[in-house]
Design brief:
The relative contact order is 0.16. This protein has 14 helices and 9 strands. Strand 6, helix 12 (about 280-290) and strand 7 (about 295) form a beta-alpha-beta unit. It has helices at about 5-25, 45-55, 55-60, 70-75, 100, 135-150, 180-195, 205, 215-220, 225-230, 240-245, 280-290, 305, 310-320; strands at about 30-35, 80-85, 155-165, 230-235, 260, 270-275, 295, 325, 350. Helices cover about 35% and strands about 10% of the residues. The chain starts with a helix and ends in a 14-residue tail after the last strand. It is an alpha/beta fold. The chain has a 5-stranded mixed sheet, covered by helices on one side.
Length: about 375
Amino acid sequence: MKLTGGLLAGIFITASALINNNTDDQTINHFQVIGSHNSYKQAINPKLFRFLQQRDSVGMSKIDYEHISLADQLNLGLNALEIDVYADPKGGKYAHPKGLDWVPGQPAFDTQGVMKEPGFKVFHIEDIDFRSNCATFKICLQQLKKWSDEHPDHNPVYITMNAKDEPSKKPGFTVPEKFTAQTFADLDKEILTNLGKQYLITPDDVRGSYKTLEAAVLHNNWPKLKAAKGKFIFILDEKGEKRATYIAGHPSLKGRVLFADAMPGTPEAAIHIMNDAKKDLAAIQSLVKKGYIIRTRADSDTEEARANDMSSFIAAQKSGAQIISTDYYKKSTHFKSDYVISFAGGNYFKADPLFKTTDAASAGN
């Protein structure tokens, strides 16, 4: 029988609808995404970089990268970002980085005066790597909200966060404010105020009626993709005292905005960070199959990119880790290399290989 163009089109639309429905009905832990690391970071000014490089060439090579704006990354199709925050409750602590005084002739910094306002600041390293595409956390959140409103059907976006308060080992640097229980309460409030609960998937949403968050995860109580679209999932990438402080008084992260990087086997376990997929391949695979969401890295410290070494990315995909971080969704403009990270076809979102039921499913923003 000869098929007409209209009949062929109808068959194609029906098949596409079936695939999309299958995709939408899968829980979010059944997909792998690619995102960026230190997503806010601008390049260090070349004059300052050369000055610092003369004193620590190895250390500076590790931070010799930059990113396009958060919105541009999301428009490209990335489904995960990383934002580092420094507490600045009084304002002005980071308004004049010392690196500006070490090397004259650099471009002006903070021309809008936002660094003088109280609230969380966003940058990589105090005094040396301080330029950011969104200098305050408030601005970052407002950018995310604006982009989300313009793309209401977007795939869920993971936001990994570091609470930066470790002082530099080198003398003379600005000493960050420590994160306390109040600081973390302020962090939650900042997200709720500037983004909004309706834009979030929180631990409470996943735990539901289960006794603990981990019990919900082990029963695959993650939201389905169709229910998670238009949402953000925040993750606190901290261990030790900071993680304990965030969890304290909030068993199973009740009432919290961020998921914690909690160890499997604890009531708060849901999302766990394991950055070496080559070393931890089997362990990651086991945890993913149980229901946890794992974040790993394709590259770090510019090393893989300089060597054009894809082995970590290959292991990350094979591990089934749902969140894969990179600094190189685009080729480097700081050194010559063909290293660039994406899934097949230039995508950044795909079915997780450990869940065979989604083999045919694929979705984009």
